[in-house]
Amino acid sequence: MDLSVQKHFTVVDYVVFAILLAVSMGIGLYYALSGGRQRTTQEFLMADRSMGCLPVSLSLIASFQSAVAIIGVPAEIYTYGTQYWFIGFAYILGLIIPAHVFIPVFYRLRLSSAYEYLELRFNKVVRICGTLTFICQMVIYMGVCVYVPAFALNAVTGLELWGTVLATGLVCTLYTALGGLKAVIWTDVVQTIVMFAGQLAVIVVGVQKAGGVSDVWTKVWEGNRISSFDINPDPTERHTFWTLGVGGVFLMLSLYGVNQTQVQRYLSARTEKEAVRSCYMVFPSLQLALALSCVMGLVMFACYCGVDHSDKLSTSSRDAMVIYFVMDMLHGLPGLPGLFVACLFSAALSTISSAFNSLATVTMEDLIKPHFPAMTQRKAILLSKGLALFYGLLCLAMAYLTHLMGDSVLLVALKIFGMIGGPILGLFSLGMFFPSANSIGAVAGLGAGVSMAFWVGIGAILTRTSGSKTQTLDCKVTQSNDTAAAFQIALSNITLSRPSGLKRLYSLSYMWYSAFNCIVVIVVGLLISFLTGPMKKEDVTPGTIYPLLQKIFWFLPEHLKKKLSCVTPLEQTPAVQQRQLLCQKSNRSAQQDRPIQEETETFLPDAHMTHVEHETCV
Ligand SMILES: O=C(O)CCCC[C@@H]1SC[C@@H]2NC(=O)N[C@@H]21
Ligand code: NA
């Protein structure tokens, strides 16, 4: 351990960090004591559906940009080069499809939880399965997000590990439980700004210490960290343009299309247009976040290449080396180490608070309310806050489990999304794009997708092959002359003995997990649906199908398009209008603390609700 770094936490740094925690707490208290004072679940869980597109868009970024990306991406770029940057291409379709496919369907059904859609489209069992799968995904992911900043700082600055985990967890649980979604969204805004500021500070200081932009560029170019288009179609290749650009789209859809954390933000927007606009506004900020963390990795390479620092750290993990690099750059500049610590914890807090709040929402909306319709608002609120606390403590326990996972933290997070987020994306896609899919098919498909995901995921860990074929480019390349360099690169690119059969399945790049598992759910779901009798068009709830074929063949004449869409088109269906009318009425009654019953009834259309006439099917 390089003790020289430890000294650099001056009082100023602790003050900067404490200010961030205090501001977050202040926002939580403000929303607990102002507005509707969080007395209704509409306000606590849905922010009164009153949010503008700017705060929603910053909160959307904050939800899935945590310390994992702040530390994991620079470590990835330092070790393997800028190939990972190609994931930026996935952000294009990864945000356009949610904006024009998922948001319209969810918004017009006026849901509180994304999983309510599954009951509308299928049945209660499918909704429960979807909710439980989501809870598993977010609890594991939250554990990683709490653990990473504390572990990284402990490894480098000796900052008390479990003390910071506890401080982070408690502050976060408190302001989430007190201030609800409004507090979570506004703390996300502050935390995203701090996150960008911290990364920028490290880049500016690092470039200056590396001798200026041109020196940095020369070093990273010679160190062949600037990756070119790798269009190798081999799916076991860890990072190629295809695994990141195409596989990444499915990853983005599982997060920004159907993940409750993001869906809840879309639904908290004032109007559908605001929700779509907030989705578009995510694009530039997400590219900025990606660029900052990639450039930070390049600057770290320029400063450190050729000099091996692992002897100075108790762990040889590249993730800890990133923190070492940051502290090495910022020491002697009072306040900046504190700013970066604040940046790290802002990234973590904004993700964890979003996860708590969405976990409390789905637990209330999907698992509790349907069984206790007579529950009063007062009890519902108390329970929602209790749940936020419960999930806070659960995530601390998960943080400990993360201690045991070996991989780089970025790898762990991306695998979680692929293994669990992928099947959930498959479940929603099965519902939205395939009118014939029925509930049995949905449950069977989800089960198949999750078991396939764990089979491949665990198989890869046991055989340590998931996309590990890419050799790490070592730094010595910079000292040698070009012929040796060329030889070195040629050597590292020689493909190892191609794995066969099952081993090939285990060596599937984890960037394909989302796509692979999503497709498994859809294929199995359709197969079982046809075997058990496909859903009849007239039984499908209006507004739950996205007329995919009709939209793809938009250029066809009207009468042909009608033949393509077997179920009510997306436009406002009378059923939805009727329900909105009832919602507004029940919201007014809910203020007077009347039983929540009416509100629950209006959310779920009952069978006799007039079905709009259906186009004749082929
Ligand atoms: O930072 C994290 O907590 C998770 C790692 C990144 C998750 C994915 S990567 C593509 C997309 N862009 C982001 O900023 N987050 C998600
Ligand atoms: Na975050």
UniProtKB/TrEMBL annotation:
<dbReference type="GO" id="GO:0015075">
    <property type="term" value="F:monoatomic ion transmembrane transporter activity"/>
</dbReference>
<keyword id="KW-0092">Biotin</keyword>
<dbReference type="GO" id="GO:0015887">
    <property type="term" value="P:pantothenate transmembrane transport"/>
</dbReference>
<keyword id="KW-0739">Sodium transport</keyword>
<keyword id="KW-1133">Transmembrane helix</keyword>
<comment type="function">
    <text>Sodium-dependent multivitamin transporter that mediates the electrogenic transport of pantothenate, biotin, lipoate and iodide. Functions as a Na(+)-coupled substrate symporter where the stoichiometry of Na(+):substrate is 2:1, creating an electrochemical Na(+) gradient used as driving force for substrate uptake. Required for biotin and pantothenate uptake in the intestine across the brush border membrane. Plays a role in the maintenance of intestinal mucosa integrity, by providing the gut mucosa with biotin.</text>
</comment>
<feature type="transmembrane region" description="Helical">
    <location>
        <begin position="440"/>
        <end position="462"/>
    </location>
</feature>
<keyword id="KW-0915">Sodium</keyword>
<feature type="transmembrane region" description="Helical">
    <location>
        <begin position="380"/>
        <end position="402"/>
    </location>
</feature>
<feature type="transmembrane region" description="Helical">
    <location>
        <begin position="279"/>
        <end position="302"/>
    </location>
</feature>
<keyword id="KW-1003">Cell membrane</keyword>
<feature type="transmembrane region" description="Helical">
    <location>
        <begin position="12"/>
        <end position="33"/>
    </location>
</feature>
<keyword id="KW-0813">Transport</keyword>
<comment type="subunit">
    <text>Interacts with PDZD11.</text>
</comment>
<feature type="transmembrane region" description="Helical">
    <location>
        <begin position="408"/>
        <end position="428"/>
    </location>
</feature>
<feature type="transmembrane region" description="Helical">
    <location>
        <begin position="185"/>
        <end position="207"/>
    </location>
</feature>
<dbReference type="GO" id="GO:0006814">
    <property type="term" value="P:sodium ion transport"/>
</dbReference>
<keyword id="KW-0769">Symport</keyword>
<feature type="transmembrane region" description="Helical">
    <location>
        <begin position="510"/>
        <end position="531"/>
    </location>
</feature>
<keyword id="KW-0406">Ion transport</keyword>
<protein>
    <recommendedName>
        <fullName>Sodium-dependent multivitamin transporter</fullName>
    </recommendedName>
</protein>
<feature type="transmembrane region" description="Helical">
    <location>
        <begin position="128"/>
        <end position="149"/>
    </location>
</feature>
<keyword id="KW-0812">Transmembrane</keyword>
<dbReference type="GO" id="GO:0090482">
    <property type="term" value="F:vitamin transmembrane transporter activity"/>
</dbReference>
<dbReference type="InterPro" id="IPR001734">
    <property type="entry name" value="Na/solute_symporter"/>
</dbReference>
<feature type="transmembrane region" description="Helical">
    <location>
        <begin position="161"/>
        <end position="178"/>
    </location>
</feature>
<feature type="transmembrane region" description="Helical">
    <location>
        <begin position="85"/>
        <end position="107"/>
    </location>
</feature>
<dbReference type="GO" id="GO:0098660">
    <property type="term" value="P:inorganic ion transmembrane transport"/>
</dbReference>
<dbReference type="GO" id="GO:0016324">
    <property type="term" value="C:apical plasma membrane"/>
</dbReference>
<dbReference type="GO" id="GO:0015293">
    <property type="term" value="F:symporter activity"/>
</dbReference>
<dbReference type="InterPro" id="IPR038377">
    <property type="entry name" value="Na/Glc_symporter_sf"/>
</dbReference>
<comment type="similarity">
    <text>Belongs to the sodium:solute symporter (SSF) (TC 2.A.21) family.</text>
</comment>
<keyword id="KW-0472">Membrane</keyword>
<feature type="transmembrane region" description="Helical">
    <location>
        <begin position="53"/>
        <end position="73"/>
    </location>
</feature>
<dbReference type="Pfam" id="PF00474">
    <property type="entry name" value="SSF"/>
</dbReference>
<keyword id="KW-0325">Glycoprotein</keyword>
<dbReference type="InterPro" id="IPR018212">
    <property type="entry name" value="Na/solute_symporter_CS"/>
</dbReference>
<feature type="transmembrane region" description="Helical">
    <location>
        <begin position="239"/>
        <end position="258"/>
    </location>
</feature>
<dbReference type="InterPro" id="IPR051163">
    <property type="entry name" value="Sodium:Solute_Symporter_SSF"/>
</dbReference>
<feature type="transmembrane region" description="Helical">
    <location>
        <begin position="336"/>
        <end position="359"/>
    </location>
</feature>
